[in-house]
Write a structure and sequence with these properties.
The complex is a heterodimer of chains A (about 375) and B (about 150). With about 375 residues, chain A is α/β, with parallel strands linked by helices. In chain A, about 35% of the residues lie in helices and about 20% in strands. In chain A, the strands form two sheets. Chain A has a ten-stranded mixed sheet, with helices on both faces. In chain A, helix 3 packs across helix 12 and helix 5 crosses helix 9. Chain A starts with 11 loop residues before the first strand and ends with a strand. A six-stranded mixed sheet of chain B has the order 1-9-8-5-6-7, with no helix packed on it. In chain B, strands 3-2-4 form a three-stranded antiparallel sheet, with no helix packed on it. Chain B is globular, with a radius of gyration of 16 Å. The C terminus of chain B is likely disordered. Classes of the chains: A alpha/beta (about 375), B mainly beta (about 150). Chains A and B meet through helix 4 and strand 5 of A and strand 5, strand 6 and strand 7 of B.
Protein backbone atom coordinates (compact mmCIF):
# COMPACT_ATOMS: atom_id res chain seq x y z
CA UNK A 1 0.00 0.00 0.00
CA UNK A 2 1.33 3.42 -0.92
CA UNK A 3 1.54 6.44 1.30
CA UNK A 4 -0.86 9.35 1.41
CA UNK A 5 0.11 12.90 0.59
CA UNK A 6 -0.67 14.04 4.12
CA UNK A 7 1.71 11.43 5.57
CA UNK A 8 4.61 13.04 3.68
CA UNK A 9 6.15 16.47 4.14
CA UNK A 10 3.40 19.12 4.12
CA UNK A 11 2.96 20.85 0.76
CA UNK A 12 1.63 24.40 0.36
CA UNK A 13 0.53 26.51 -2.57
CA UNK A 14 2.55 29.71 -2.19
CA UNK A 15 2.12 31.40 -5.56
CA UNK A 16 -0.67 31.59 -8.15
CA UNK A 17 -0.88 33.23 -11.55
CA UNK A 18 -3.04 33.28 -14.65
CA UNK A 19 -3.17 34.60 -18.16
CA UNK A 20 -6.80 35.34 -18.96
CA UNK A 21 -8.60 32.55 -20.81
CA UNK A 22 -9.78 33.94 -24.16
CA UNK A 23 -10.43 33.27 -27.85
CA UNK A 24 -7.38 32.24 -29.83
CA UNK A 25 -5.29 35.32 -30.54
CA UNK A 26 -1.97 36.18 -32.19
CA UNK A 27 -0.22 35.76 -28.84
CA UNK A 28 2.21 32.87 -28.68
CA UNK A 29 1.90 30.22 -26.00
CA UNK A 30 5.26 31.48 -24.71
CA UNK A 31 3.75 34.87 -23.94
CA UNK A 32 0.67 33.29 -22.32
CA UNK A 33 2.72 30.96 -20.15
CA UNK A 34 5.30 33.55 -19.08
CA UNK A 35 2.51 35.92 -18.00
CA UNK A 36 1.04 33.29 -15.66
CA UNK A 37 4.43 32.18 -14.30
CA UNK A 38 5.62 35.74 -13.63
CA UNK A 39 2.33 36.48 -11.86
CA UNK A 40 2.80 33.37 -9.70
CA UNK A 41 6.41 34.30 -8.90
CA UNK A 42 5.34 37.82 -8.02
CA UNK A 43 2.51 36.49 -5.87
CA UNK A 44 4.91 34.23 -3.95
CA UNK A 45 7.60 36.95 -3.72
CA UNK A 46 10.09 34.46 -5.17
CA UNK A 47 12.64 34.95 -7.93
CA UNK A 48 12.78 32.35 -10.70
CA UNK A 49 16.11 30.77 -9.55
CA UNK A 50 14.32 29.59 -6.37
CA UNK A 51 12.24 27.17 -8.47
CA UNK A 52 13.94 23.79 -8.45
CA UNK A 53 11.74 21.86 -10.86
CA UNK A 54 8.89 22.49 -13.32
CA UNK A 55 5.94 20.51 -14.69
CA UNK A 56 4.45 21.86 -17.91
CA UNK A 57 0.90 20.77 -18.63
CA UNK A 58 -0.13 21.01 -22.26
CA UNK A 59 -2.57 18.89 -24.22
CA UNK A 60 -2.46 20.64 -27.59
CA UNK A 61 0.87 22.30 -28.23
CA UNK A 62 2.83 19.18 -29.18
CA UNK A 63 6.31 18.07 -28.24
CA UNK A 64 8.84 20.03 -26.17
CA UNK A 65 6.93 23.22 -25.39
CA UNK A 66 8.55 23.77 -22.00
CA UNK A 67 12.10 25.00 -22.37
CA UNK A 68 11.20 27.24 -25.30
CA UNK A 69 9.05 29.10 -22.78
CA UNK A 70 10.97 28.75 -19.51
CA UNK A 71 14.35 29.84 -20.95
CA UNK A 72 13.06 33.41 -21.08
CA UNK A 73 12.95 33.45 -17.28
CA UNK A 74 16.75 33.07 -17.25
CA UNK A 75 18.05 29.55 -17.60
CA UNK A 76 18.75 27.67 -14.38
CA UNK A 77 19.29 24.18 -15.73
CA UNK A 78 16.57 22.66 -13.54
CA UNK A 79 14.34 19.71 -14.37
CA UNK A 80 11.36 20.21 -16.62
CA UNK A 81 8.81 17.55 -17.54
CA UNK A 82 5.78 17.76 -19.81
CA UNK A 83 2.45 16.34 -18.71
CA UNK A 84 -0.55 15.43 -20.86
CA UNK A 85 -3.68 13.98 -19.26
CA UNK A 86 -6.50 15.27 -21.51
CA UNK A 87 -8.73 17.76 -19.67
CA UNK A 88 -7.02 16.85 -16.39
CA UNK A 89 -3.59 17.84 -17.74
CA UNK A 90 -3.12 20.84 -15.43
CA UNK A 91 -4.44 18.86 -12.44
CA UNK A 92 -1.90 16.12 -13.08
CA UNK A 93 0.95 18.62 -13.50
CA UNK A 94 -0.05 20.05 -10.12
CA UNK A 95 -0.25 16.61 -8.52
CA UNK A 96 3.26 15.72 -9.66
CA UNK A 97 4.62 19.04 -8.39
CA UNK A 98 3.02 18.29 -4.99
CA UNK A 99 4.44 14.77 -4.93
CA UNK A 100 7.93 16.01 -5.73
CA UNK A 101 7.81 18.41 -2.80
CA UNK A 102 6.06 15.96 -0.45
CA UNK A 103 8.63 13.28 -1.24
CA UNK A 104 11.46 15.62 -0.35
CA UNK A 105 13.02 15.74 -3.81
CA UNK A 106 12.58 19.51 -4.10
CA UNK A 107 11.43 22.39 -1.89
CA UNK A 108 9.99 24.76 -4.50
CA UNK A 109 8.25 23.43 -7.64
CA UNK A 110 6.30 25.08 -10.45
CA UNK A 111 3.30 23.61 -12.25
CA UNK A 112 2.17 25.56 -15.28
CA UNK A 113 -0.55 24.80 -17.79
CA UNK A 114 -0.63 26.49 -21.16
CA UNK A 115 -2.50 25.82 -24.39
CA UNK A 116 -3.74 27.28 -27.62
CA UNK A 117 -6.50 25.59 -29.60
CA UNK A 118 -4.36 23.66 -32.11
CA UNK A 119 -5.81 20.48 -33.59
CA UNK A 120 -3.60 17.67 -32.30
CA UNK A 121 -3.64 14.01 -33.33
CA UNK A 122 -5.65 12.01 -30.82
CA UNK A 123 -3.86 8.88 -29.71
CA UNK A 124 -7.01 7.16 -28.49
CA UNK A 125 -8.33 7.17 -32.05
CA UNK A 126 -5.30 5.14 -33.19
CA UNK A 127 -6.27 1.98 -31.28
CA UNK A 128 -7.17 0.19 -34.51
CA UNK A 129 -10.79 -0.21 -33.48
CA UNK A 130 -13.67 1.26 -35.42
CA UNK A 131 -16.84 2.36 -33.71
CA UNK A 132 -20.37 2.74 -35.00
CA UNK A 133 -20.59 6.51 -34.85
CA UNK A 134 -17.81 7.96 -32.70
CA UNK A 135 -17.31 10.91 -35.04
CA UNK A 136 -21.06 11.62 -34.89
CA UNK A 137 -21.28 11.32 -31.11
CA UNK A 138 -18.64 13.74 -29.79
CA UNK A 139 -18.40 14.90 -26.14
CA UNK A 140 -21.25 17.43 -26.32
CA UNK A 141 -23.57 14.68 -27.53
CA UNK A 142 -22.27 12.23 -24.92
CA UNK A 143 -23.37 14.76 -22.30
CA UNK A 144 -26.62 15.59 -24.12
CA UNK A 145 -27.45 11.88 -23.82
CA UNK A 146 -26.60 11.91 -20.11
CA UNK A 147 -28.82 14.99 -19.72
CA UNK A 148 -31.70 13.20 -21.45
CA UNK A 149 -31.27 10.20 -19.16
CA UNK A 150 -31.05 12.41 -16.03
CA UNK A 151 -34.16 14.41 -16.95
CA UNK A 152 -36.16 11.23 -17.43
CA UNK A 153 -34.84 9.52 -14.29
CA UNK A 154 -35.52 12.38 -11.88
CA UNK A 155 -38.28 14.31 -13.74
CA UNK A 156 -35.95 17.27 -14.19
CA UNK A 157 -36.58 20.00 -16.78
CA UNK A 158 -34.35 21.54 -19.43
CA UNK A 159 -34.64 24.82 -17.49
CA UNK A 160 -33.35 23.26 -14.26
CA UNK A 161 -30.23 22.01 -16.03
CA UNK A 162 -29.66 25.38 -17.73
CA UNK A 163 -29.68 27.06 -14.29
CA UNK A 164 -26.15 25.67 -13.82
CA UNK A 165 -25.06 27.91 -16.69
CA UNK A 166 -26.94 30.91 -15.24
CA UNK A 167 -24.94 30.55 -12.00
CA UNK A 168 -21.61 29.96 -13.70
CA UNK A 169 -22.00 32.86 -16.15
CA UNK A 170 -22.92 35.05 -13.16
CA UNK A 171 -19.71 33.99 -11.39
CA UNK A 172 -17.63 34.38 -14.54
CA UNK A 173 -18.93 37.94 -14.98
CA UNK A 174 -17.06 38.78 -11.76
CA UNK A 175 -13.80 37.14 -12.81
CA UNK A 176 -11.36 39.27 -14.84
CA UNK A 177 -9.54 36.09 -15.97
CA UNK A 178 -12.67 34.39 -17.33
CA UNK A 179 -13.14 33.69 -21.04
CA UNK A 180 -16.82 34.68 -20.76
CA UNK A 181 -17.50 37.63 -18.48
CA UNK A 182 -21.16 38.34 -19.09
CA UNK A 183 -24.18 37.54 -16.95
CA UNK A 184 -26.82 35.60 -18.87
CA UNK A 185 -30.50 35.15 -18.16
CA UNK A 186 -32.15 31.76 -18.27
CA UNK A 187 -34.02 32.89 -21.40
CA UNK A 188 -30.77 33.90 -23.11
CA UNK A 189 -29.18 30.56 -22.30
CA UNK A 190 -32.16 28.51 -23.47
CA UNK A 191 -32.64 30.45 -26.70
CA UNK A 192 -28.95 30.38 -27.59
CA UNK A 193 -27.68 28.30 -30.50
CA UNK A 194 -28.69 24.64 -30.01
CA UNK A 195 -25.74 22.25 -29.93
CA UNK A 196 -27.03 18.82 -28.98
CA UNK A 197 -30.12 17.62 -27.19
CA UNK A 198 -31.07 20.22 -24.60
CA UNK A 199 -27.58 21.73 -24.51
CA UNK A 200 -27.19 25.18 -26.02
CA UNK A 201 -23.89 26.91 -26.78
CA UNK A 202 -23.95 28.83 -23.50
CA UNK A 203 -24.20 25.52 -21.60
CA UNK A 204 -21.00 24.26 -23.23
CA UNK A 205 -17.50 25.43 -22.26
CA UNK A 206 -15.55 27.68 -24.61
CA UNK A 207 -12.19 26.23 -25.65
CA UNK A 208 -9.69 29.00 -26.24
CA UNK A 209 -6.21 29.89 -25.05
CA UNK A 210 -4.72 30.81 -21.69
CA UNK A 211 -2.30 29.83 -18.97
CA UNK A 212 -2.35 29.05 -15.26
CA UNK A 213 0.50 28.54 -12.80
CA UNK A 214 0.92 27.41 -9.23
CA UNK A 215 4.10 27.29 -7.16
CA UNK A 216 4.17 24.73 -4.36
CA UNK A 217 6.63 24.58 -1.51
CA UNK A 218 7.68 22.64 1.57
CA UNK A 219 7.95 24.29 5.01
CA UNK A 220 11.73 24.18 4.64
CA UNK A 221 11.50 26.00 1.32
CA UNK A 222 9.16 28.61 2.78
CA UNK A 223 11.50 29.21 5.70
CA UNK A 224 14.52 29.51 3.42
CA UNK A 225 12.89 32.27 1.37
CA UNK A 226 10.93 33.95 4.16
CA UNK A 227 7.56 33.17 2.57
CA UNK A 228 4.49 34.59 4.36
CA UNK A 229 2.93 31.43 5.86
CA UNK A 230 -0.42 33.14 6.44
CA UNK A 231 -1.07 33.17 2.67
CA UNK A 232 0.14 29.60 2.11
CA UNK A 233 -2.61 27.07 1.50
CA UNK A 234 -1.96 23.43 2.36
CA UNK A 235 -2.68 20.64 -0.11
CA UNK A 236 -4.22 17.93 2.09
CA UNK A 237 -5.06 15.30 -0.49
CA UNK A 238 -4.28 14.45 -4.09
CA UNK A 239 -5.99 11.55 -5.84
CA UNK A 240 -5.84 10.39 -9.45
CA UNK A 241 -8.01 7.54 -10.77
CA UNK A 242 -9.09 6.07 -14.08
CA UNK A 243 -12.27 4.54 -15.42
CA UNK A 244 -12.99 0.86 -14.93
CA UNK A 245 -15.94 -1.41 -15.67
CA UNK A 246 -18.87 -0.37 -13.47
CA UNK A 247 -22.13 -2.11 -12.74
CA UNK A 248 -24.44 -2.21 -15.79
CA UNK A 249 -26.44 0.99 -16.14
CA UNK A 250 -24.03 3.20 -14.21
CA UNK A 251 -22.71 6.32 -15.92
CA UNK A 252 -18.94 6.07 -15.94
CA UNK A 253 -18.32 9.81 -15.55
CA UNK A 254 -20.24 10.07 -12.29
CA UNK A 255 -18.96 6.72 -10.98
CA UNK A 256 -15.37 7.74 -11.57
CA UNK A 257 -15.97 11.05 -9.78
CA UNK A 258 -17.75 9.27 -6.92
CA UNK A 259 -14.81 6.95 -6.38
CA UNK A 260 -12.07 9.59 -6.75
CA UNK A 261 -13.75 12.23 -4.58
CA UNK A 262 -14.55 9.68 -1.85
CA UNK A 263 -10.88 8.67 -1.60
CA UNK A 264 -9.75 12.31 -1.58
CA UNK A 265 -12.23 13.24 1.17
CA UNK A 266 -11.29 10.20 3.24
CA UNK A 267 -7.60 11.02 2.96
CA UNK A 268 -8.33 14.60 4.03
CA UNK A 269 -10.50 13.37 6.89
CA UNK A 270 -13.47 15.38 5.66
CA UNK A 271 -17.01 14.93 4.46
CA UNK A 272 -18.36 16.64 1.34
CA UNK A 273 -20.67 18.76 3.51
CA UNK A 274 -17.60 20.44 5.08
CA UNK A 275 -16.38 21.81 1.74
CA UNK A 276 -16.80 25.58 1.35
CA UNK A 277 -15.66 25.79 -2.26
CA UNK A 278 -15.47 23.35 -5.17
CA UNK A 279 -14.03 24.09 -8.57
CA UNK A 280 -15.80 21.43 -10.60
CA UNK A 281 -15.43 19.99 -14.09
CA UNK A 282 -18.52 21.56 -15.68
CA UNK A 283 -17.58 21.37 -19.36
CA UNK A 284 -21.33 20.95 -19.97
CA UNK A 285 -24.09 22.13 -17.62
CA UNK A 286 -25.43 18.63 -16.87
CA UNK A 287 -22.02 17.56 -15.54
CA UNK A 288 -22.22 19.86 -12.55
CA UNK A 289 -25.47 18.24 -11.40
CA UNK A 290 -24.14 14.71 -11.90
CA UNK A 291 -20.87 15.43 -10.09
CA UNK A 292 -22.14 17.33 -7.04
CA UNK A 293 -24.39 14.33 -6.40
CA UNK A 294 -21.58 11.86 -7.04
CA UNK A 295 -19.19 13.58 -4.67
CA UNK A 296 -21.86 13.68 -2.00
CA UNK A 297 -22.76 17.35 -1.73
CA UNK A 298 -26.42 16.33 -2.04
CA UNK A 299 -28.42 13.17 -2.70
CA UNK A 300 -29.11 11.52 -6.07
CA UNK A 301 -31.51 13.61 -8.14
CA UNK A 302 -31.41 16.47 -5.63
CA UNK A 303 -28.86 18.73 -7.30
CA UNK A 304 -31.44 20.84 -9.24
CA UNK A 305 -33.25 21.71 -5.98
CA UNK A 306 -29.99 22.28 -4.13
CA UNK A 307 -28.95 24.67 -6.93
CA UNK A 308 -32.34 26.43 -6.98
CA UNK A 309 -32.17 26.98 -3.22
CA UNK A 310 -28.82 28.75 -3.64
CA UNK A 311 -26.80 25.96 -2.01
CA UNK A 312 -24.19 26.10 -4.79
CA UNK A 313 -24.01 29.91 -5.03
CA UNK A 314 -21.27 32.10 -3.65
CA UNK A 315 -22.61 32.64 -0.12
CA UNK A 316 -24.45 29.31 -0.13
CA UNK A 317 -23.49 26.06 1.61
CA UNK A 318 -20.71 25.39 -0.90
CA UNK A 319 -19.73 27.77 -3.71
CA UNK A 320 -19.48 25.53 -6.77
CA UNK A 321 -17.19 26.95 -9.47
CA UNK A 322 -17.03 30.52 -8.14
CA UNK A 323 -14.51 31.24 -10.93
CA UNK A 324 -17.29 30.65 -13.46
CA UNK A 325 -16.19 27.07 -13.99
CA UNK A 326 -15.36 25.64 -17.38
CA UNK A 327 -18.62 27.08 -18.76
CA UNK A 328 -17.67 30.70 -18.09
CA UNK A 329 -14.03 30.83 -17.01
CA UNK A 330 -13.30 28.54 -19.96
CA UNK A 331 -11.48 25.34 -20.78
CA UNK A 332 -8.21 25.96 -22.62
CA UNK A 333 -7.37 22.36 -21.51
CA UNK A 334 -3.74 22.37 -20.29
CA UNK A 335 -4.36 25.31 -17.92
CA UNK A 336 -7.85 24.35 -16.74
CA UNK A 337 -7.01 22.12 -13.76
CA UNK A 338 -4.35 24.57 -12.57
CA UNK A 339 -6.79 27.46 -12.96
CA UNK A 340 -9.01 25.59 -10.48
CA UNK A 341 -6.11 25.41 -7.99
CA UNK A 342 -5.57 29.15 -8.49
CA UNK A 343 -9.23 29.89 -7.70
CA UNK A 344 -9.44 27.55 -4.70
CA UNK A 345 -6.22 29.06 -3.30
CA UNK A 346 -7.53 32.58 -3.81
CA UNK A 347 -10.79 31.63 -2.07
CA UNK A 348 -9.04 29.99 0.89
CA UNK A 349 -6.75 33.02 1.27
CA UNK A 350 -9.91 35.17 1.32
CA UNK A 351 -8.54 37.19 -1.58
CA UNK A 352 -11.31 36.48 -4.11
CA UNK A 353 -12.93 39.91 -3.76
CA UNK A 354 -16.47 40.02 -5.14
CA UNK A 355 -16.37 36.25 -5.73
CA UNK A 356 -15.36 35.46 -2.16
CA UNK A 357 -17.13 32.57 -0.45
CA UNK A 358 -17.44 33.91 3.12
CA UNK A 359 -15.20 32.17 5.63
CA UNK A 360 -13.92 29.59 3.14
CA UNK A 361 -11.57 27.09 4.83
CA UNK A 362 -11.79 23.90 2.80
CA UNK A 363 -11.81 23.61 -0.99
CA UNK A 364 -11.79 20.93 -3.67
CA UNK A 365 -10.60 20.99 -7.28
CA UNK A 366 -12.07 18.29 -9.54
CA UNK A 367 -11.29 17.50 -13.16
CA UNK A 368 -12.37 14.69 -15.44
CA UNK A 369 -10.33 13.96 -18.54
CA UNK A 370 -11.20 12.09 -21.70
CA UNK A 371 -10.39 8.43 -21.45
CA UNK A 372 -11.59 8.71 -18.68
CA UNK A 373 -9.42 9.94 -15.85
CA UNK A 374 -10.30 11.92 -12.76
CA UNK A 375 -8.03 14.03 -10.56
CA UNK A 376 -9.16 15.55 -7.26
CA UNK A 377 -7.24 17.81 -4.87
CA UNK A 378 -8.37 19.12 -1.51
CA UNK A 379 -6.82 22.27 -0.08
CA UNK A 380 -7.23 23.69 3.39
CA UNK A 381 -6.26 27.00 4.98
CA UNK B 1 -33.22 -8.57 -53.01
CA UNK B 2 -30.95 -5.54 -53.05
CA UNK B 3 -27.42 -6.33 -51.97
CA UNK B 4 -25.32 -3.90 -50.02
CA UNK B 5 -21.73 -3.42 -49.01
CA UNK B 6 -21.39 -2.86 -45.28
CA UNK B 7 -19.82 0.53 -44.50
CA UNK B 8 -18.01 -0.93 -41.49
CA UNK B 9 -17.65 -4.68 -42.01
CA UNK B 10 -15.63 -5.06 -38.80
CA UNK B 11 -18.60 -3.84 -36.77
CA UNK B 12 -21.71 -5.47 -38.22
CA UNK B 13 -22.99 -8.12 -40.62
CA UNK B 14 -25.70 -7.58 -43.21
CA UNK B 15 -27.36 -10.72 -41.85
CA UNK B 16 -28.89 -11.19 -38.45
CA UNK B 17 -28.25 -13.80 -35.80
CA UNK B 18 -30.04 -17.19 -35.81
CA UNK B 19 -32.09 -15.80 -32.92
CA UNK B 20 -32.99 -12.60 -34.76
CA UNK B 21 -32.28 -13.22 -38.45
CA UNK B 22 -34.01 -10.17 -39.90
CA UNK B 23 -31.91 -7.52 -38.21
CA UNK B 24 -28.21 -6.94 -38.89
CA UNK B 25 -26.02 -8.46 -36.19
CA UNK B 26 -23.31 -6.59 -34.33
CA UNK B 27 -19.87 -8.16 -34.12
CA UNK B 28 -18.85 -8.42 -30.50
CA UNK B 29 -16.98 -10.69 -28.14
CA UNK B 30 -17.56 -12.70 -25.01
CA UNK B 31 -14.77 -13.25 -22.52
CA UNK B 32 -14.39 -16.42 -20.48
CA UNK B 33 -15.30 -14.25 -17.45
CA UNK B 34 -18.73 -13.69 -19.02
CA UNK B 35 -18.19 -10.07 -20.07
CA UNK B 36 -19.86 -9.27 -23.39
CA UNK B 37 -18.50 -6.31 -25.29
CA UNK B 38 -18.73 -4.35 -28.53
CA UNK B 39 -16.86 -3.50 -30.71
CA UNK B 40 -14.81 -6.62 -31.29
CA UNK B 41 -11.18 -6.61 -30.15
CA UNK B 42 -8.61 -9.15 -29.06
CA UNK B 43 -6.27 -6.88 -27.14
CA UNK B 44 -7.74 -8.08 -23.86
CA UNK B 45 -10.85 -8.08 -21.71
CA UNK B 46 -11.52 -4.73 -20.03
CA UNK B 47 -13.06 -6.42 -17.03
CA UNK B 48 -10.58 -9.22 -16.21
CA UNK B 49 -7.55 -8.86 -18.49
CA UNK B 50 -7.86 -12.27 -20.20
CA UNK B 51 -6.82 -12.28 -23.86
CA UNK B 52 -6.26 -14.48 -26.89
CA UNK B 53 -8.23 -17.74 -26.87
CA UNK B 54 -10.12 -16.74 -23.71
CA UNK B 55 -12.07 -14.27 -25.82
CA UNK B 56 -14.50 -15.58 -28.43
CA UNK B 57 -16.19 -13.75 -31.27
CA UNK B 58 -19.95 -13.59 -31.02
CA UNK B 59 -22.73 -12.14 -33.12
CA UNK B 60 -24.96 -9.85 -31.07
CA UNK B 61 -28.62 -9.55 -32.01
CA UNK B 62 -29.66 -6.14 -33.27
CA UNK B 63 -32.28 -5.44 -30.66
CA UNK B 64 -32.25 -3.42 -27.51
CA UNK B 65 -33.83 -0.62 -25.52
CA UNK B 66 -33.33 3.13 -25.71
CA UNK B 67 -31.63 4.48 -22.62
CA UNK B 68 -31.28 8.03 -23.95
CA UNK B 69 -31.54 10.01 -27.16
CA UNK B 70 -30.61 13.49 -28.37
CA UNK B 71 -31.06 15.46 -31.54
CA UNK B 72 -27.62 16.67 -32.60
CA UNK B 73 -27.71 20.17 -34.07
CA UNK B 74 -24.04 20.65 -34.75
CA UNK B 75 -21.76 18.36 -36.72
CA UNK B 76 -18.08 18.97 -37.39
CA UNK B 77 -17.80 15.76 -39.42
CA UNK B 78 -18.44 15.80 -43.16
CA UNK B 79 -19.84 12.27 -42.85
CA UNK B 80 -22.86 13.42 -40.87
CA UNK B 81 -25.17 16.27 -41.65
CA UNK B 82 -26.99 17.76 -38.63
CA UNK B 83 -29.62 17.46 -37.41
CA UNK B 84 -29.53 13.75 -36.68
CA UNK B 85 -30.51 11.68 -33.67
CA UNK B 86 -27.99 9.92 -31.47
CA UNK B 87 -28.86 7.34 -28.87
CA UNK B 88 -27.58 5.21 -26.03
CA UNK B 89 -28.95 1.71 -26.54
CA UNK B 90 -28.73 -1.19 -24.11
CA UNK B 91 -28.66 -4.28 -26.32
CA UNK B 92 -30.53 -7.36 -25.14
CA UNK B 93 -27.09 -9.01 -24.84
CA UNK B 94 -26.40 -6.60 -21.99
CA UNK B 95 -23.91 -4.14 -23.41
CA UNK B 96 -24.62 -0.45 -23.89
CA UNK B 97 -23.70 1.09 -27.23
CA UNK B 98 -23.88 4.49 -28.89
CA UNK B 99 -25.49 4.63 -32.32
CA UNK B 100 -27.54 6.82 -34.63
CA UNK B 101 -31.26 6.35 -35.06
CA UNK B 102 -32.93 6.14 -38.45
CA UNK B 103 -35.87 8.36 -37.55
CA UNK B 104 -36.81 11.77 -38.89
CA UNK B 105 -37.39 13.43 -35.52
CA UNK B 106 -37.49 12.51 -31.87
CA UNK B 107 -41.18 13.22 -31.24
CA UNK B 108 -42.20 9.56 -31.22
CA UNK B 109 -39.26 8.33 -29.16
CA UNK B 110 -39.32 7.42 -25.48
CA UNK B 111 -36.81 6.03 -23.02
CA UNK B 112 -37.23 2.28 -22.64
CA UNK B 113 -38.53 1.90 -26.20
CA UNK B 114 -37.46 -1.24 -28.07
CA UNK B 115 -35.24 -0.50 -31.06
CA UNK B 116 -33.93 -2.73 -33.87
CA UNK B 117 -30.87 -2.56 -36.06
CA UNK B 118 -31.40 -1.50 -39.64
CA UNK B 119 -29.31 -0.52 -42.64
CA UNK B 120 -29.28 2.82 -44.33
CA UNK B 121 -27.58 3.62 -47.62
CA UNK B 122 -24.87 6.20 -47.05
CA UNK B 123 -22.84 6.02 -50.27
CA UNK B 124 -22.08 4.06 -53.46
CA UNK B 125 -18.79 2.54 -54.52
CA UNK B 126 -17.19 3.12 -57.95
CA UNK B 127 -19.23 0.24 -59.42
CA UNK B 128 -22.47 1.73 -58.24
CA UNK B 129 -23.02 -0.72 -55.40
CA UNK B 130 -24.80 0.71 -52.41
CA UNK B 131 -22.88 1.05 -49.17
CA UNK B 132 -25.01 0.66 -46.09
CA UNK B 133 -24.27 1.77 -42.53
CA UNK B 134 -25.90 0.57 -39.34
CA UNK B 135 -28.66 2.52 -37.65
CA UNK B 136 -31.36 1.69 -35.13
CA UNK B 137 -35.07 2.30 -35.41
CA UNK B 138 -38.08 1.75 -33.17
CA UNK B 139 -40.21 0.59 -36.10
CA UNK B 140 -38.83 -2.16 -38.32
CA UNK B 141 -38.65 -0.48 -41.72
CA UNK B 142 -38.97 -1.93 -45.20
CA UNK B 143 -38.35 0.91 -47.57
CA UNK B 144 -35.67 1.83 -50.07
CA UNK B 145 -32.52 2.73 -48.17
CA UNK B 146 -33.38 0.49 -45.29
CA UNK B 147 -32.79 -3.22 -45.45
CA UNK B 148 -34.11 -4.21 -42.06
CA UNK B 149 -37.18 -6.39 -42.44
CA UNK B 150 -40.27 -6.96 -40.44
CA UNK B 151 -40.77 -9.93 -38.21
CA UNK B 152 -38.94 -11.50 -35.36
CA UNK B 153 -38.42 -15.19 -34.88
CA UNK B 154 -37.48 -16.71 -31.61
Amino acid sequence: MGKLLKDQRPVYVIGIGLHRYQHASAKTYVELGLTAIREALNDSKLEWPAVESSYIGTAKLGMAAGRAMLRHLGTTGTSLVHIENASATGSSAFRLACMEVAGGFSDIVLAVGVDKPDPMPKAFQKNGMEDLASDAIVPFTHFALLANEYMQKYSVTVEQIAQVAVKNHRNGAKNPYAHRQKERTLAEILSDKPISGSLTRLQCCPIGEGAAAAIVASEEGMKRYGIDASRAIRVVSSVSRSERVYRPGAGFDAELTRETAAIALKEAGMSASQLDVIELHDAFSIEELLYVEALGLCGEGQAPDFLAEGGMDIGGQCAVSPSGGLIAMGHPTGPTGLGQIVEVTRQLRHEAGVRQQPGAKKGMAHMVGLGSVCVVHILER
Amino acid sequence: MVSYLPAKPSLFSLEGTPHLPDYPALKGCRCKCGYVFFPRQRYGCERCGRFGHDIEDIEISGKGKLRAFATVHRSDSENYQAPYIAATIVLDAGCAIRALLDVADESSLFIGQTVYSTLTVVDCDERGRKIADLRFTPVPLDVEGSAGRRGETS
